[in-house]
Amino acid sequence: MNFTDLRKFVAPETIFGVGAVDLAGQYAGKFGISKPLVVTDPGVLAAGWATRVMESLAAFDIEGVIFSEITPNPKAAEVMAGVTAYEAGECDGIVAVGGGSPMDCAKGIGIVVSNGGHILDYEGVDKIIIPMPPLICIPTTAGTSADVSQFAIINDTDRKTKIAIISKTIIPDVALIDPQTLMTKSPYLIACTGMDALAHAIEAFVSSAHSPMTDVHALEAIRLVHGNLLESFLHPEDMELKAKTMLGSMQAGLAFSNASLGAVHALAHSLGGYKDLPHGECNALLLPHVVDYNFSAAPDRFRTIAETMGLDSRGMSTSEIRAWLIEAMTSLRSSLGIKDRLASKGIRASDIPVLSDKAILDPCLVTNPKSANRRDIQVIYEEAT
């Protein structure tokens, strides 16, 4: 694209650094919230972060109502249960504490509270008319970036697929991003969410909707995540490494929220909804295969990605750069302990046409740099199986 092309860029107010989690009460007060629904999950509750947020709210005489009936890959029924809890508690705002599941569920709750109906009514782009109640997001993983994005991903269990809801009305009012929340995460969760962040950044950089405004965030995310994820995984006590991966996740979120994504996420949404698998793991298993498919459509962009990941590409042919990049992603994934293939996750040849039929409808596929038909998608799944 040209620098003069018209583009928009949206982002929430963002507070980053150690201690951000303790600002929940202050910001709830600024938004006039007196009784927020605090949306979280059992793991975050057990780790103590939701309690920490409740204490911050109480310090400002704000009474939070806990809603934690959320599982990984938040289900439509869980969103609707949250709506019931919001209305029963006479809440007037939402504070989400957790990874992508609580934050996406919180967005879904806000959508239905303001607009009515069922959360599945809002699948697609710009279907939300009335703004949500005030929303504060406090991420506890370095991966999904739901705290800074205009995306919400909800599992439609009847259709066994994930739906994407995309609208600037669901961008949180403020993101309180505190790297200390990563200290209670398991190594495998850090690995999966980190690969999710890397996929966000790579897909945003090669997206057909990329712009100079998103490129700077995507490349910085690639540098931070690829450069620090493995060390953070190996040294879980190092707060500086945690901060770098969390900052990389934030940068990736700013990039993909505005440039959208591609086939990795389209295929991962279908896969995760079908088998209820961790989203970051799905991305990690698919990323090298999708990059291999997309490379010919944006070789210069993929060269820049490889160079940002540390490759000195002088004198290398395009095919050599392609091979290096795929190997670098595969090697990182393996070093993080993500070594399975789709077959080990229960995917069989008979599942692939079903998965492909769902993936072809995902809005993320619209901005993939290379067009893909059902057979193309089937081949990618087959290669990953």
Overall description:
The chain has 385 residues and is of the alpha/beta class. It has 14 helices and 9 strands. The longest helix has 23 residues, at 212-234. The radius of gyration is 20 Å and the shape is globular. The model has no long low-confidence stretch (mean pLDDT 96).
Give the strand line-up of the largest sheet. Answer: 1-9-6-4-2-3
Proportion in β-strands: 5-15%
Main structural class: alpha/beta
User: What is the first-to-last residue Cα distance?
Assistant: 36 Å
Task: Please describe the biggest sheet, giving its number of strands, its sense, and whether it closes into a barrel.
Answer: 6 strands, parallel
Distinct helical segment count: 14
Low-confidence segments, ≥5 residues, pLDDT <50? none
Cα shape? globular
- What is the arithmetic mean of pLDDT? 96
**Based on DSSP secondary structure assignment, what is the total number of beta strands?**
9
SSE arrangement, N to C: EHEHHEHEHEEEEEHHHHHHHHH
The helix content, as a percent range, equals 40-55%
- Rg calc: 20 Å
